[in-house]
Design goal:
Elements (H helix, E strand, L loop, with lengths): L2 E6 L7 H14 L4 E6 L1 H4 L6 H18 L7 E4 L5 H12 L2 H5 L2 H7 L8 H15 L5 E2 L6 H17 L9 E2 L35 H10 L21 H6 L1 H14 L3 H8 L4 H27 L2 H30 L5
Parallel strand pairs: 1-2, 2-3, 4-5
Helix pairs in contact: 3-13, 4-7, 4-14, 7-8, 9-13, 11-12, 11-13
The chain binds tryptophan (TRP).
The site of tryptophan has 14 residues, from β1 and α7.
Length: about 350
């Protein structure tokens, strides 16, 4: 059976962008794949993390997964550091990947910024650890966003080079799993900026922990423009919104996109529904929809976080099952590379 692996870093609060861009898709994949969802705390520490915060955010991501509908009984949810194979295989991959390959990674350049000499060595080999995450389970499919495609390509290169160097047909070459059009969620205060956990204004984003009242308030305050809502005339032949129309009214199209994603409807249906209406009417509909889905999820997250013992036991059991898969694969790798295990 095909196996999905994906990871999310436990850094910063999860918001609507994370939900619509990633987590919601992970929920859908559960029916078609065996899924392994990992909270990558080892990746997180490639840049400084306060220890207490890291623990709290690891639990928060786990609670978000469960509240969003990831079934930790049928699938596996765990945090990376509880499974030694990730670090063990990453070391082997540090020796397989070439420095030239890592030097081409655009995310390292972005994250290291100007002071590259001062970046952690971990940040540099980050993509090798990511390859180890995926390949420790011989995962065949990886749902990733645009920003992680280069890392997934590298994981394929590493798998291929390992197989070639050791003359084995051991690792599969993992494929990106693209699910429809990813929803790009923009700031509620400025439709030209991505919704982000680092925006100083909390009104710019809807957090997954926001309760119904907070969700409603943030939508009420969301920036709009003075014109009535556009209709289907802004669509191109392929059903996507004309980029010119979108950039002229970024806030309007952001809210319409959020509505379409939450309602699970194509853009055309939403444009047909609201064409020519005032924002006030549209915002009422959006609020009802958002409160129904997100408000409930936020409430469930709060309940879960009030019971950290339960979340911890889900992660502990997930890690146990993850070790049962990755351990034997790692043992084979040790044989293949020639580690003596007397
Ligand atoms: N690098 C990914 C991100 O920041 C997280 C990640 C780590 C991941 N390991 C992974 C994603 C394995 C997919 C598969 O979003």
């Amino acid at each position: 059976m095909n196996r999905i692996f994906s990871g999310v870093q436990p850094t910063g609060n999860l918001h609507l962008g994370n939900y619509l861009g990633a987590i919601r898709n992970w929920v859908k994949l559960q029916d078609r794949f065996e899924c392994i969802y990992c909270i990558v705390d080892m990746h997180a520490i490639t840049v400084w993390q306060d220890p207490a915060q890291l623990r709290a955010q690891t639990r928060e991501v786990a609670a978000a997964f469960l509240a969003a509908g990831i079934d930790a009984d049928r699938h596996i949810v765990f945090n990376q550091s509880q499974v030694p194979a990730h670090a063990q295989l990453a070391w082997v991959f540090n020796c397989v990947a070439r420095i030239g390959w890592l030097n081409r990674m655009t995310q390292f350049k972005e994250k290291a910024g100007k002071d590259r000499e001062n970046a952690s060595a971990g940040l540099y080999v980050y993509p090798n650890l990511m390859a180890a995450d995926i390949l420790a389970y011989k995962a065949t499919h990886v749902p990733v966003g645009e920003d992680q495609k280069q890392h997934l390509e590298l994981a394929r290169d590493i798998a291929q080079k390992f197989n070639n160097d050791y003359e084995v047909d051991f690792f599969p070459l993992p494929e990106p799993q693209i699910l429809g059009t990813a929803t790009r969620v923009m700031s509620l205060r400025d439709g030209a900026k991505k919704m982000s956990k680092s925006d100083p204004s909390d009104y710019s984003r809807i957090n997954m922990t926001d309760d119904a009242d907070t969700v409603a308030l943030k939508i009420r305050k969301a920036k709009t423009d003075p014109n009535p809502l556009p209709g289907p005339e802004v669509l191109r032949a392929d059903g996507t919104v004309d980029p010119g129309a979108e950039s002229a009214r970024p806030e309007a199209f952001n809210l319409l996109g959020i509505y379409a994603a939450l309602a699970d409807k194509p853009a055309r249906a939403v444009l047909d529904e609201f064409a020519g209406q005032e924002f006030s009417a549209f915002k009422r509909a959006l609020t009802d929809l958002a409160v129904a889905t997100l408000g409930e999820m936020g409430g469930e997250m709060k309940r879960l976080l009030a019971e950290p013992g339960h979340v911890d036991s889900v992660l502990r059991q997930g890690a146990e099952r993850a070790r049962a898969i990755a351990g034997p694969i790692m043992a084979e790798v040790e044989d293949i590379v020639g580690y003596l295990r007397p």
